[in-house]
Design goal:
Distance between the termini: 32 Å
Strand order of the largest sheet: 1-2-3-4-6-5
Strand content: 15-25%
Oligomer: single chain
Largest sheet: 6 strands, antiparallel
Helix content: 25-40%
Order of helices and strands: HHEEEEHEEHH
Number of strands: 6
Length: 142
Amino acid sequence: MAKIAALPSPPPGVRSALDACPPAARAGVTALRALIIETAAGMPEVGPLTETLKWGQPAYLTQQTKSGTTIRLGWGEDGRSISLFVHCQTSLVDAWRQQYNDQLSFIGNREISIPTHTDLPRAPLQHCIAMALTYHSRKTPS
């Protein structure tokens, strides 16, 4: 994973959303945001990430290269869990489930849910993030 000197500050709207995150989930969301940014930084084919809000949640897009699908961050209102979301019409969660069903918790066809009382499972999450960031560039033409 590429280490970047300092994480960029989020845009004002994203900062407001992150500030609204329950205190119990804030460290996990911050760490997951950093993992997304660091993973993308180590993948030149992804290009620069666009950090914005989608449905009021922090979202990460490969807007310049269009190599991947949008990744969104979320959290439970009680702060007991954080989530990484992808578009429900991708095949990503099915692929992740096949590889990481014993290490990650999946909800439906769009979400990885992580309890905030545990450390982030960095290696599987980094792989899932990399797959999302390159989803469109890896799809075979139909």
